[in-house]
Amino acid sequence: MEFFELSFNVDHGYLEGLVRGMKAGILTQSDYHNLAQCDTLEDMKLHMQSTDYGKLLSSSEGDLTVSLVDTKLRDNLVTEFSCLRSNALPPLSTFLDYITSVLPGCCIRVQPG
Q1: Would you say residue 97 lies in a domain?
Q2: What is the mean pLDDT of residues 91-113?
Q3: What is the percentage of the chain residues whose pLDDT exceeds 90?
Q4: Cα–Cα distance between 66 and 73 in angstroms, integer?
Q5: What pLDDT is attached to residue 112?
Q6: Cβ–Cβ under 8 Å, residues 95 and 103
């Protein structure tokens, strides 16, 4: 008697859980609609407090600027990508390495190691 369920997704289960968690944190269409109606960066920061990105902007001290928001969000993207890459097995890890090293126009510039 074989139990295929015991070994289902044994290699990629943790990574799948990470991706599902990250997907749940993606902004919804209503979030984008509300952000489009914000007049100032402070309004945007208040709306973002109710999302997964709220902690990123709440930790910033001083005046909120567009470059600060861009830097915080880009750093978060690189951190999440690095987490996925460090937990990936081939062939996904090979593809993620390809993204970061071969594609020069890619906005994710992750330093190896």
Answers
A1: yes
A2: 72
A3: 34
A4: 11
A5: 47
A6: no
Domain presence at residue 40: yes
User: Within a domain: residue 6?
Assistant: no
**Rounded alpha-carbon distances, angstroms, from residue 105 to 1, 3, 108:** 52, 46, 9
Q: How confident is the model at residue 113 (pLDDT cuts 50, 70, 90)?
A: very low
Q: Tally the domains of the chain.
A: 1
Answer for the pair 41, 71: CB distance below 8 angstroms, yes or no.
Answer: no
Distance CA(88)–CA(16), nearest Å, equals 10
Domain encompassing residue 51:
13-101
Q: Give the residue ranges of DSSP H helices in the chain.
A: 4-7, 13-24, 29-36, 41-48, 54-58, 66-87, 92-101
Query: Rounded to two decimals, what is the model's pTM?
Result: 0.78
- The reply to whether 109 falls in a domain is no
